[in-house]
Amino acid sequence: MFSVSFPEQASLYGFISVVFFAVGTTSLFLAVIAMGLIDSGLVRRKSVLDTWVQKLMCAMLAGFAMLIGGYALWQWQFNSALGVPNPLRQAMSDWWIGGENFRHIATELNPTLVPGADTLQSYGAFFLTWAALVGALLHSVGIERAKALPMFVLSIVAGGVVMPVIAYLTWGSAGPLSNAGTHDYVGIFAMYLLVGSWALVLAWRIGPRLGAMSFHPRTAGPAPQNLGTSAAGAGLLMVALPMPILSCGYFVPDVGYFGISLTSSGMGLVLTNLFVAYSAGAISGGVIAYVTRKPVLAIFGPIAGYVACAAGLDVFTPVETFLVALGGPVATYIGIRTMGRLGIDDTKIVPLTLFGGTYGAIVTGFVAWGTKTGGYFDGTGKYAFQHAEITPWWQIAGWAVTVAIALLSGLVVVLLLEKTVGLRVTEEQEIAGLDVSYWDSPPSEDDVDLVGAAAGPAPAVGSVRVN
Question: Which residues pair with 373 in a beta bridge?
C-alpha cells in the first residue's frame, strides 16, 4: 500500500471537482481563441498573423502575472473571514506561485488548514485563464496599429495587479464590497468593467487606424471585414462560456450550489439563464441590426445579452434574465454610437464591456434587490453566512469603485507607456502591415494591389524587432 500524509485529500468528490474545473479552465481558454477569430475577421490580411501572435502573448502574460501573486491576493478575503492571523501575509505566503500550497501535492497538505487542496490548486489555473481573457480583450483595442511591447506591459499590469485588486474587493463573498452586498457572479467588475475602462483610455490615446474614421491618401479605407470569421469566433465564444460560468460558484454535496458570493442558486438554473440571455440578446441585437442595416449586433447580440446578465445569472429567474438581456444590445449600440461621435476607433470592446457592463452591474441591484448574499460558510459576526443583501446602492458603489480604480490605473499606465516606448507603430509599418513589419511575412498580392490602387506603390519596409 502507498502511504500518504493526508489520504482524505484524495476523495472522489475532490477528483470530480478538479475534473469539473479542468473542463471550465480549458473552455475558458477557448474563449481566447474565439477572440482571435473575431479579430482576424476585422483586420486586413496583412496583419492577421501578428494579430494572433500578439493576442496569444498578451493572454499568456496576463494569466501568468495573475498567478504570480494575484490569486494569493484574492485568497486574502477568505483568510480574513476565517480569522487567520495576518491574513494578507499568510495568503501571499501560501498562494503565490512559489507558495507553500503550490509546492506540495494535495495529499501532503493538512485538510484542517487547506481543505479541498486539489480544488483550490486547480482554481489557480482557473484564475490564470480568466486573466488571460482580460489580456486577449485588451489586445483587441489596438489591432493593426499597436506596438507589441506596450500591449504586453498593459496585459501584465492589468492581469497581475489591477484585476486581482478589483476581484478582492468585488468578486467572492468576503471581500470588502462583496461582503457588504455588492453582487457579481461571473466577474463583471473585475473583468468587463476593468477591460472597458482600460480600453477606453487606450483607444483614445492610440488613435484610430489609418483610414478607419477619415480619409487617408495611402490606405484603401477601413479594413475589409470578413464577418464570417468573426461570426465563427462569436459562436465559439458562446460554446466556450457555459462551463467557466458554472465554475463561478460552490457545489456543496448534499446541500446545494451557491454563487461565488454565497447566493443560493442552482447549476441547472444558471445554465438555463445563460442560454436565455443568448436568445434575448440575439433577438434584440437582430432587431437593431436590421433597422440600422449593420450586421455587427446580429453577430454579437447574444454576447451582449450575456454580459448584461453576467452579474446576476445565479439569482435571476429565466423571465428576469430575458428582460434584462434584451437591454444588453441596446446599451452596446449606445456605446457604438458614442464611440463614433467621439472619434474613438473602438466599436467592439468599450461598447460591449463598459457600456453593457455598466448597464448589467446596476440593473442587477434592482432585479435581485433583497437577495441574501455575502459572508462565508460557518462564518460569524460580520462574516456570517448570507448576512448581507443585494441592493442597487451596493451595485452602484461597486461600479463606482471599480471604474475609478480602472480609469485611474489605466490612465497612468497608458500615459507612461506613451511617453516612453510609445504605443503605436509607424505609419509606414501600419500601411505595409504588421505581418511584414514584425515577421517578414509579405502581404498577399491582393493587399499589395489594394494599397497600390489607393495611392501608388507603398515604400519598402524592412524587418522590425519588437519595440
Answer: 388
pLDDT grade for 44, boundaries at 50, 70 and 90:
confident
DSSP state at residue 160 = I
In order of 200, 344, 354, the CA distances from 338 in angstroms are 11, 9, 12
Where residue 460 falls among pLDDT bands split at 50, 70, 90? very low
How far apart are alpha carbons 175 and 166 in whole angstroms? 10
Indicate the residue type of 27: S
The x, y and z cell numbers of residue 420, run together, are: 516612453
Structure confidence at residue 463 (pLDDT) = 38
**What stretch of H or E contains 5?**
none
Grid cell, residue 353, equals 464591456
Q: Which CATH number fits domain 11-209+224-424: 1.10.287.70, 3.30.499.10, 1.10.3430.10, 3.30.2310.20?
A: 1.10.3430.10
Quick one: which of 425, 440, 441, 458 has its CA closest to 45? 441
Q: What is the pLDDT of residues 93-118, one digit of tens each?
A: 999 999 999 999 999 999 988 999 99
Terminal CA-CA length for the chain? 57
3-state DSSP assignment of residue 373 = strand
Interior/surface letters 181-192, b for 16+ CB within 10 angstroms, e for the rest: bbbbbbbbbbbb
Chain centroid to CA 231: how far?
Answer: 19
Q: Is the pLDDT of residue 406 over 60?
A: yes
Q: In whole numbers, what is the pLDDT of the chain averaged over residues?
A: 91
Q: Give all strands of the β-sheet with 264-265 in edge-to-edge order.
A: 249-252, 256-259, 264-265
CA nearest 151: which of 444, 397, 466? 466
Helices (H), 140-226: 148-157, 163-170, 194-206
Rounded to a whole number of angstroms, the CA Rg of the chain reads: 23
Task: Name which of 348, 305, 297 is nearest 323 in CA terms.
Answer: 305
The pLDDT of residue 225 is 63
pLDDT in tens, 183-193: 999 999 999 99
Residue positions counted in the chain: 467
Name the residue ranges covered by the structural domains of the chain.
11-209+224-424
Task: Measure the CA–CA gap between 325 and 308, rounded to whole angstroms.
Answer: 6
Distances (CA, A) of 455 to 272, 441, 459: 53, 22, 11
The answer to whether 270 touches 258, Cβ cutoff 8 Å, is no
Residue 254 has pLDDT above 90, yes or no: no
